[in-house]
Amino acid sequence: MALALVTGAAIRVGRAIALQLAQDGFDIALHYHGSEQAAKETASEIQQLGVKALLIQSNLAQAENLSSLIPQAQSFGELKVLVNSAAIFPSDDTLENSHEHWDRVLNVNLKAPLMLSQAFAQLQHNNAHIINILDARIKAPAGDHLVYRLTKSALWHLTESLAKELAPKVQVNGLALGAIMAPPGASEDHFKRMANQIPLQRTGSPEAVAEAVSFLVSQNFITGAVLPIDGGEFL
């Protein structure tokens, strides 16, 4: 059975993606950092769907940890799908932050997807897929979350570049997310009010993202695409 590695898969959007791919019949290599109990619960749900789940704990902010993820997953089965979902969205993210802060955000949001994609491509499987989770707001430049925006902009460019670099064996696509979940610390009421700014007059859900991942993984003639999952907010 084919295997999918999903980073940041214990909670939130990553969890929904892992569960959807499990429903699609993939065994899941479930990466997490600090959410051990949630990871175990997600793995249990995956196993109840009749597929296998491998837990991989790793801090992606530490670059020395990145080289081991793909080999760990590959030892579990034939790795055909890589979903780079793990990300940091700091509440305080400006020019005034320390270099250590910048390095942490850059490592998790950009260096990890780059290095994991590099290792994944070296497996030389045909009909393989990389899906990068992006941010639709990058189309509308602003002064907030400076380093986060930088990483997601670069990851968008990397998605399109790798689509050319890794063809024809690996298809590389992205999902640009809009209002999918309330950010940590934000109230649900504030999140619901965001619907007023969205043409479809509603916010999204992790399940909508997971269904889009499932769609892209099922396709054999789409690469280099970034699909907006934003209700038309950033048109």
| Tally of individual helices | 7
Classified by CATH, the class is Alpha Beta
β-strand percent reads 15-25%
The total beta strand count reads 7
* Helical proportion, percent range: 25-40%
Low-confidence stretches: none
Described by strand count, sense and barrel closure, the largest sheet is: 7 strands, parallel
Summarize model confidence as the mean pLDDT: 93
CATH architect. name: 3-Layer(aba) Sandwich
Structural class: alpha/beta
Q: In what order do the strands lie side by side in the largest sheet?
A: 3-2-1-4-5-6-7
How many angstroms separate the termini? Answer: 39 Å
Q: What Rg do the Cα atoms give?
A: 17 Å
The general outline is globular
| Assigned CATH superfamily | NAD(P)-binding Rossmann-like Domain
Would you tell me which CATH topology applies? Rossmann fold
Order of helices and strands: EHEHEHEHEHEHHE
Number of domains: 1
Can you describe what's shown?
With 235 residues, this protein is of the alpha/beta class. The chain has one domain: NAD(P)-binding Rossmann-like Domain (Rossmann fold). It is 40% helix and 18% strand. It contains seven helices and seven strands, in the order βαβαβαβαβαβααβ. Strands 3-2-1-4-5-6-7 form a seven-stranded parallel β-sheet, sandwiched between helices. α1 packs parallel to α2 and α1 packs across α7. The longest helix has 23 residues. The model has no long low-confidence stretch (mean pLDDT 93).
